[in-house]
Amino acid sequence: MSRKYNFNAGPSTLPLSVLEELQQDLVDYKGMGLSLLEDSHRAPTYEAVHHEAVALFRELLGIPESHKVLFLGGGATLQFAMVPMNFLAAGKSAAYVNSGAWGKKAIEDAKKLGQVQIVFDGKESNFTTLPDPASVKVDPASAYLHFTSNETIGGLQWKGWPETGEVPLICDMSSDIFSRAVPVKKFAYIYAGAQKNMGPAGVTVVIIRKDLAENAPPNLPTMLQYSTHIENSSTFNTCPVMAIFVVHEVMKWLKEMGGVPEMEKVNNKKAALIYDILDNSSFYRGTVQKDSRSKMNIPFRLPTEDLEAEFLSQANKNNLKGLKGHRSVGGMRASIYNAMPIEGVQKLVDFMADFEKSHK
Ligand code: PMP
């Protein structure tokens, strides 16, 4: 078997041991004679997986009792709408940070549903920088502040958290959840699509402070109310059992690897390897200002688009896959989520150094 190093931004690389375990479990789950894919989401076998996944989330992220963990459908994108539907009461205004492609999408949906106030606009720096968290000022009457902890396309990541007092802090952590320690208690609401640091596409993880769901407009359709999912432990309808099962396996792997603190250390080393070459080269160019750079998604450019095409083609031949930047920005992007081993990043930087030597 020849597995490539996969730098895709999402869906993205998964731990090999998890994939191998899945292969075993797929046909006959723990001697049941059938797969979890084929069993009821209300059967005790699946229920055990579901509850253990929640328990692992609580343990690994340090989620307090005040918050619930939910598994929802519709991708992180549905949360762009569900957040204002549930939390942006009529007559109120919500504060948003426009940090790039994903922040912008959240803003677009919120504007359809209520009033939005932009408290930082990255447009002014062509989305190459984030604000100093301490400089973000929010009107105390705001319904909430929404921001994106890591802009997957632009490659920007917050290094601290805004202070909002009583105003609920809401964060899209799709592309950096579980990559570093997070003071969950500070947040009223966190959401993340699974397909980067947690598992496959098909499930969105929500961490919600219970009291926040209580004031949603009662006329919202049942599936769009967080309270429905809180009351039914995410099994109001048929939940995405397979995606949740894989998330459960990835959480077990993460725990075996030493949990979030260990992951954070390795992630720091991996990112430093790539930024080192970008900072010491006149050939490669990082696109984000230093204090806002992401440790998960690292975009970079080469001197010409022809060289970029050649780089991608040669990288592919060297088993380095998924390095093409997002279609909206071009260039390269190395996504180095938790499951990317440091050996893969070392292989990439060795390749980059060789390519620079032969094409300068
Ligand atoms: N937010 C961020 C930061 C993302 O990176 C993505 C997907 N790449 C989304 C939201 C949208 O997620 P989904 O495709 O699961 O709806």
Question: How does this structure look, described?
Answer:
This protein has 360 residues and is of the alpha/beta class. The chain has 9 helices and 14 strands. It has 2 domains: 240 residues, Aspartate Aminotransferase, domain 2, CATH 3.40.640; 101 residues, Aspartate Aminotransferase, domain 1, CATH 3.90.1150.10. Helices cover 36% and strands 16% of the residues. A 7-stranded mixed β-sheet has the order 2-10-9-8-5-3-4, sandwiched between helices. Strands 11-12-14 form a 3-stranded antiparallel β-sheet, covered by helices on one side. It binds 4'-deoxy-4'-aminopyridoxal-5'-phosphate (PMP). 4'-deoxy-4'-aminopyridoxal-5'-phosphate binds next to α3.
Which key features would you list for this structure?
3-stranded antiparallel beta sheet, binds 4'-deoxy-4'-aminopyridoxal-5'-phosphate, 9 helices, 36% helix, Aspartate Aminotransferase, domain 2, Aspartate Aminotransferase, domain 1, 2 domains, 14 strands, alpha/beta, 7-stranded mixed beta sheet, 360 residues
- Helical/strand content category: alpha/beta
Number of strands: 14
Going by CATH, the architecture of the largest domain would be 3-Layer(aba) Sandwich
Instruction: Please identify the top-level CATH class of the largest domain.
Output: Alpha Beta
Q: What is the general shape? A: globular
H-E order: EHHEHEHEEEEEEEHHHEEHEEH
Helicity range: 25-40%
Number of self-contained structural domains: 2
* Straight-line N-to-C gap: 35 Å
Major beta sheet, strand line-up: 2-10-9-8-5-3-4
Mean pLDDT: 96
